[in-house]
Structure formats: structure tokens, C-alpha cells
Amino acid sequence: MTSMILTEQQLKERKEKARKEEIRQNVKSHCTQIRDGIRNNGSTSGERAIWELFQNARDLSEAAEIKMTLTDKKFIFSHKGKAFTYDSLCSLVKQVSSHEKEDNISIGQYGTGFLTTHKFSRKITINGSMQISEDPKVYVDVAGFEINRENFNDIPKFIDDMTDQIDSVGKLMDTEQKSTPKEWTELHYELNEERHKIANKAIEEAIKMMPYILTFNDHISKCTICYNEQVIEFKKENKAITTSDLRCKRITKSSNGDTVCIDCFYLELHNGESRILLPLQTETEVCSLGDIPRLFVHFPLIGSNYFNVNFLFHSHRFTPEEKRDNIIVPKDNDATESIAQKNKEILDEMTQHLWYFLEGHVETWNNTILMANIDIKDNGFTEKETENYYKCLKERWVTEFQKLKLIEIDGKR
Q1: Distance between CA 354 and CA 394 in Å, rounded?
Q2: What is the dihedral sign for C-alpha 357, 207, 113, 87?
Q3: Is 54 in contact with 77 (CB distance < 8 Å)?
Q4: Are 274 and 296 contacting, i.e. CB atoms less than 8 angstroms apart?
């Protein structure tokens, strides 16, 4: 018979203490990750933060409706989509990406990129619903639920804050049960003067980008923006055109009674996962796309624009850098070598598709010289592999565009 040095009660207490220490260590790992993410927020984070919020809304609906409201004191991001679950709300508290879940089918819901939204505020107040049963469907209200990361630099206090917030998610399970969820999920960010400027700039960028966002995202149907005493509404529809293989999304922008239609012409491949937006304002009239990032993974990759051509390339298949400032390209890093090669293959396939299309149609277009801007950075990189990649890329673009008949001479091309 085994002799017992500890009493049953003492053993139970030791087990309970070890369990609590294990849980606290687990929470600590999430807290340190969040702290490091907040510290790494860069100068473009306000603009990136908008797209992180859009991405989360996109993941939660087949046809997301989004609304952004900016007042003197608050930035509110709202969307119609699936309600929270216990798991997804805890994931938001702990900042665990859906990439880490076994059943993940999204593009990164509530991952570490969501930390960029703390450029607006380190306190987020959430209103919406949480689903607590699938069959039958049962919901509880999420009203004024606060995620507070003000103590991110004080890890012991931060651990206590996060532990309390996780407990609060559990307590929601005991509130009044309902058969239907709230229509909107809202994230409220309280603003000071500096953060109001950040939010205002991010919204202005969103307005500029919205036609391309709606063109590249089938799961986003509508966006309404309320700021500066304006209500701006973006909607989209497919527009029939005559050019074979060319597609068009008509984006309708309405603001205080005025309506403007913006036609976005694009090519599609990989069953719609990849799209190339052409610089066309009509089916035959070329224009300049201006100061827009050239690479998208549903949303713009905001960073140094090394690939400055007058076309936009989006692919769900691209793998971006963690900071979403570029796709991963060749560099002196064997850990990313295969990813960089895959990105290269995807972009090569898309550009070949574009060049084949241009060869058959460019002669009928006007102002085609505007397409000839090929400003691809090919020197000054710190890594030889990266510089060689962009040099080869530029050489291929120059060679292909020299074949196209872009300039009219004596009425001929």
C-alpha cells in the first residue's frame, strides 16, 4: 500500500495551485504577444487597421455589409455577419488567429494583425451577440463588453485584466437566451485628438480604395461611411460589357444626394481567386490609377511600392509579409524560399495572362501611352536575391511592352 505524505486535501490544493499557475502562464504568453504587437505598430498601422477590420467582417459573411462612423470622440466599426461564439470571442480577447484553429477556412480572423486597430484606442467596446448553441440556435446579447489593453506594458496587471475578460465571456453564457442574434456587430474605439487624426486619415484612404476593395472581394457587398457630416455609401453590381474575357464591376458612390458611378475593369483567373484590374475608365479609354498600392491580398499591401506599374494585382493565393507591406519575394532566407517561389509563379502567370490579353485588344484603346509607365525598382536593395528578382521582373515588363503598339503615328500603330 502506497504511503501518503500529503493528505488528500493537501494534494487537492497542490493540484489546484499547479493548474492555476499553468493557466496564468498560458495567459501570460498571450499578453506578451499582444504587448510586442502593440509596440510594433508602425506609421501605416492606422490605414492597415481599417483593412484588418474589413478582413474580419469579410470572414463572417457571404455578403458583408459594413458601416464606419467617425465622431469627435469615437470610431465605430459595424458589420452584419455571423455572431460571436464563445471560442471566437475568447480568441479576440487572447488575440489567437483563426489560422491556428483546426477547422479554419477564413483568411485570418482576429489574428495578430488585429492589434493594429489599437492605433485607434487600446480599449475596445463590443456590442453584438454570442451564439451559445448550434442546435437549437441560441444567442445571448454582448452589450458593452470591454477589451482593455491599457496595461499592456505591465504584464502582471495585464494578465489579471485578460483573466477577468475571459471570465466575463463565460458569464455571458448565463445571461438571457434569445432565438435570434442582433443584426449588427459593433466595435467602439474611444478617441483622443491624436487618435482621431489617425482614424480620419484611415477613413480617407478607405474611401479612395473602396472601388478596388469591392472589386476584389465578392464577400463584401456594401459599405457606408459616416464622417465629417457626410454619409457616403458604396454599392456594386456586375456590368455587362462587349469585350471578350474582360469583366466589369460598377461601383456606385452616393454622398448627400449625389451619385457617381465608377467602372472597374478586370481580368480573372484561378476561378476568381486572382484578378488584374486594368487602368480603364471606359471599355476603351485608358487612365492612370494614381497613388494606389499595386498588390492586394483582398486588401492593399501598404508599403514601399517597388512594383509600380499601371495595373493592380490581387490574388488570394499570394502569401504576404507579416506586416502586409508586400508579398514575400526572394531573399537570403531559406525559411521563405518556397513561399517566395510560389508567389513568383503566381505573379508570372498573372502577368502572362495580362500580356496575352493586351496583345489582342490594346490597338483599339485610346491613351494607351499611360500604360507604359514601368517604374519597377531594380537597385539599392540590401539583398542580392531581392535585387535580382526585381531586375528580371523589370526586364520582362519592358520587353513585353516594347512589343505592344501603344503609340499612334500617322493614324497607325
Answers
A1: 15
A2: negative
A3: no
A4: no
* Number of Cβ within a 10 Å radius of residue 8: 8
CA 357 – CA 245 distance, rounded (Å): 8
Question: What would the pLDDT profile of 372-408 be if each residue is shown by its tens digit?
Answer: 889 999 999 999 999 999 999 999 999 998 888 776 5
- Residue 150 C-alpha cell reads as 491599457
Residue with cell 486572382: 274
Burial class (CB in 10 A: 0-12, 13-18, 19+), 237: exposed
Strongest mean pLDDT among 23-37, 79-93, 109-123, 341-355: 341-355
Pairing between strand 312-315 and 185-190?
unpaired
Q: Determine the Cα–Cα distance for residues 287 and 371; give it in Å rounded to an integer.
A: 8
Q: How many residues does the chain have?
A: 413
Amino acid identity at 36: D
Q: What's the mean pLDDT in 183-205? A: 96
Measured at the CA of 120, the angle between CA 154 and CA 31, to 5 degrees, comes to 30
Element (H, E) at 55: helix 45-59
DSSP helix/strand/coil, 226: strand
CA distance 169 to 172: 5
Distance separating alpha carbons of residues 141 and 16, to the nearest angstrom: 32
Half-sphere exposure of 224 (CA within 13 A, CB side): 10
